[in-house]
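Here is one chain, start to finish.
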Amino acid sequence: MRDTPSSVDPEATLRKVARRLVPFLVACFFAAYLDRVNLGFAALTMNRDLELSPTAYGWGAGVFFLGYSLFEAPSNYILHHVGARRWIARIMISWGLVSAAMAFVWNETSFVALRFLLGVAEAGFAPGAILYLTYWIPLERRARLLGAFLIAVPLSTAVGAPISGLILEWADGALGLKGWQWLFVLEALPTLALGAAAAFYLTDRPRDAGWLGAGEREWLARRIESEAAALGEDDHAIWPALTDLRTFVLGLAYFGVVLSLYGLGMWLPQIAAAFGLGPIAAGFATSAPFLCGAVAMTLWSRRSDRLQERVRHTALGAAAGGLGLLLAAASSGHGGHDGGHAALSLLALCIAAGGTLAAMPPFWALCTDEVRGTRAALTIALVNSIGNLAGLVGPYLVGWIRESTGDFRFALLALASGPFACVAIVLCLGRSRAPATANGVHRM
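Its structure:
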């Protein structure tokens, strides 16, 4: 039978797309988050070697997101017009080189400067990958596929945490380098390799996909184009995208999620070390909340797609994240997590990470349901930019509170405000929008 759009099996075609793109993008995002969160493990010994105070470390950890946020929108605009294949490759190779250079910082100034440059180099990867997936995934499948991509966030910590602990302990002193220096060098290598591979492996648009049949290419291209046409998008609508109040409000909602995510991510190894654990044991303890997050993200995104609902799924996930942080603060002993409360505190952190991460796929499906073209590129980038400013605030806030009070409990209480703010914003916006659209997806 001749391969035509009318003879195509949509399910089989979308499975091909998922098998081709998602595992590779997950691997790339895994490397991205590994390069971010390995700093938390390096800090176990690096802070002493560089004489960094908790506040100085928190500032350096967070300044990454200043560079990242400033350059995200321009990066996504370029990706939309030059193609993901070349631009994602460029992003990954440049950030891999800067990440490896982190091994050679020598004082607070060099530490902060390279962290800022790392943010500039990596800017645009996460929103670019989300934008790229909207070129391939119809609306009703989006939360599940975005969940499959975003699962790299918890997996990078769940898998990377024990590996980072092993490198710190076993590589220390090899060839005259400290363990934390080896951590930066070795964990930059996968990024460089994947960046080179991206230039050959990724396909910019469905019509260019030689790995799909001719009819499959045509069916998928028409499907995505029909959704864009239904929205009436102007591919050069730059000013409306930059001035859409809804985009900025969604960015504030995402700020709340990211405040929790990075406030925990950058400090969790040190919180675990307060249990009295060594680097390897702290690595495994750190991985537990993010393993829970991976499971929660997968199940919750599937439920969101099955029910075709985004608002309540985002709000309920964020609420669970905030509740987990409150429980973690309540279960902590004075001065941090003492031995008698360690198990209960770890359980609470599992709830916090699980809820926060579960909120992300339906949130991004919500953000991408109603935009296409240049407007989608800028909307995704702006929401992510505003949200990721919490990556600057969260680690610094935890460091400042920890240094001022000598106690992680108050820092956890402060972080809990983020997810609860997300709940309030998303529910308020949800009530201001029509409950459903023609395709049945409940939107804001």
